[in-house]
Structures are given as structure tokens and as C-alpha cells.
């Protein structure tokens, strides 16, 4: 085999490894964010349900529902990023 084919092969391997490293780092960050957002989402849902009577009395339904909704949308965004990153990884390997 000519020497230049080994050169191209080594460049391709380095590029692939760098992509895999970046994807691995992105997956780890997404999992951390998902864990944090899931905990907050559950906490805010429980607070909203627990203070249902108070929110009706003081007209704060919008506050509790918006707070829960914001964290739920963040959680959904992070989950979709995780799924996309996992799909890219399976295509590269």
C-alpha cells in the first residue's frame, strides 16, 4: 500500500476520534442537565399539587403552572438533544 493511503487513514481516524470525543462530552452534559431538570420538574409539580388550594385562594395558578411548564420544556429539550446525539453516535460507529 502506498504511504499516502496510510496518511489519509490516520487523518480519518483522528477526525473520527475527535468527533466521538465531542459527542461523548455532549452526551455527558445532556445527561447531567436532564437529571437536574427532572428533579426540579418533579419538585415544582409536587409543590403545585400540594399548594393547589392556596393557589386557588390567592389566584396564583398561573405562577405554579408556568414554573412547572418552563422546567418541563427544558427537560424535553435536553431529552431530544440526548436522543439526537445518541443517534449520531450509532451512525458513526
Explained architecture:
By secondary structure, the chain is mainly α. The protein has one domain. 92% of the residues lie in helices and 0% in strands. Helix 1 packs antiparallel against helix 3. The longest helix has 48 residues. The two termini are 25 Å apart. The model has no long low-confidence stretch (mean pLDDT 77).
Give the arrangement of secondary structure elements:
Blueprint: H1 3-50, H2 52-57, H3 61-92
Spell out the key features of this protein.
93 residues; 3 helices
Rg of Cα set: 22 Å
Number of helices: 3
Q: What is the distance, rounded to the nearest whole angstrom, between the alpha carbons of the first and last residues?
A: 25 Å
- Count every beta strand, where a strand is a DSSP E run of 2 or more residues: 0
Q: How many domains in all? A: 1
Q: What is this structure, in a nutshell?
A:
This protein has 93 residues and is mainly α. The chain has helices spanning 3-50, 52-57, 61-92. The chain is rod-shaped, with a radius of gyration of 22 Å.
